[in-house]
Design a protein that fits this description.
globular; alpha/beta; NODB_dom; TIM Barrel; six-stranded parallel beta sheet; Chitin-binding_1_CS; 2 domains; about 375 residues; about 10% strand; cobalt; metal ion binding
Length: about 375
């Protein structure tokens, strides 16, 4: 194992820049500043796993390199082999974990997987409706009495399906920002459980949106790689539903103008969607900690005497965490119902017609549901 390398890598990827300044209208509740977006990095502890089972090896030519070092002067791993975040070739979950797999030197990294069917890069992208495309993004709803509860990073086995059951009991709707090939969960269009739960979510009236292909920081990669993060997720979602979304949320809430991200996403026809209520659930995923997320959620939506008659909210949580699925979700829905709010999709909370939420494409891969229509 190369623990010193792993520690250095973990320190290097820790976000240290605040992407958005404080705003007077954004309350600080229980010590949580919901504008501190760039401090979000729920994957740091998970990325570190990629160094735990690596072995030493000599520098090899890329076509032979299945167990040596990779990256920089060491070059690439062999075809189908991953280059771990700490620079060693190998296969299996501890080398191929994304985000964190060094896809530039690891052909087998999930980032490099290409979903079946035609590339969506050339699909026409007319900009419809009044919701901004690209730019600084959307932080809040525009429909008093509504709360848009959103989930990032999934789907995840068991958890996302449980969340759908809870929403069904409340006759409520949510928005799922889907990541296509992250955290060793399996590529969404090739994993039957993921295909099924995404299809179910859409059929039951929830909104499907994008959270990129492998959860890369879009401000930290090239324009070419940034667009691949979006189009590969489009292709996978197209292979499941027959269309792909126009709404997205940047991983780590990071999409800056200086990096070119804001313009690239405008060119791709995406509504960049942030939030004004942060549950911080990824840091509270234990029975004794999730109460913090409940307090922050309720504290924010009631701050300053806010009420359903005059206010609306856009919250963030993550369906890859047990406590979010089995505990926090029920609390959020019960709370907003008691306070007189309705749980709706992001599109509805922005008064954006449903026909603007997705783009169609007829070049689906194996198993595509090209006849599916937007409900």
């Amino acid at each position: 194992m190369h623990l010193s390398t792993a520690l250095a890598a973990a320190a290097a990827i820790m976000p240290i820049v605040n992407a958005h300044g404080d705003a007077p209208a954004m309350p600080k509740i229980f010590g949580l500043n919901i504008r501190d977006l760039k401090t979000r990095n729920m994957f740091n502890n998970l990325k570190a796993r990629s160094s735990h089972f690596e072995k030493r090896g000599e520098t090899l030519k890329s076509r032979q390199n299945t167990g040596g070092q990779c990256g920089g002067s060491f070059g690439s791993c062999a075809a189908g082999v991953c280059c771990s975040g700490s620079g060693w070739c190998g296969t299996g979950p501890d080398y191929c974990y994304a985000p964190g797999c060094n896809y530039q030197f690891g052909p087998g990294c999930p980032d490099n997987a290409v979903p079946a069917g035609s590339d969506t890069a050339n699909v026409p992208r007319p900009k419809l409706g009044s919701i901004p495309y690209g730019g600084t993004g959307v932080y809040s709803c525009a429909n008093p009495g509504t709360v848009a509860i959103t989930y990032d990073d999934g789907p995840f086995k068991g958890y996302t399906e449980h969340i759908l059951e809870v929403f069904k009991r409340y006759n409520a709707k949510a928005t799922f920002f889907i990541t296509g090939n992250n955290i060793n969960k399996g590529q969404i269009d090739l994993t039957e459980e993921h295909r099924s739960v995404i299809t179910r979510a859409h059929t039951e009236g929830h909104q499907i949106a994008s959270h990129t292909w492998t959860h890369q920081d879009l401000s930290a990669i090239s324009s070419t790689d940034r667009k691949l993060q979006m189009t590969r997720n489009e292709m996978a979602l197209r292979n499941i539903l027959g269309f792909f979304p126009t709404y997205m949320r940047p991983p780590y809430s990071s999409c800056t103008a200086a990096s070119g991200c804001e313009q690239d996403l405008a060119d791709l026809g995406y509504h960049i969607t942030y939030f004004d209520v942060d549950t911080d659930d990824y840091n509270q995923d234990a029975p004794g900690e999730i109460q913090n997320s409940k307090n922050w959620f309720q504290g924010n939506i009631t701050a300053g005497g806010a009420s359903s008659g005059t206010h609306d909210w856009l919250s963030i949580s993550h369906d890859i965490h047990e406590q979010t699925a089995t505990n926090l979700t029920e609390f959020m829905l019960s709370t907003i119902t008691t306070l007189g709010y309705r749980a709706v999709t992001v599109g509805e909370c922005l008064n954006d017609p449903k026909e603007n939420w997705y783009r169609t494409d007829t070049g689906g891969g194996q198993g595509s549901i090209s006849s599916t229509t937007v409900s």
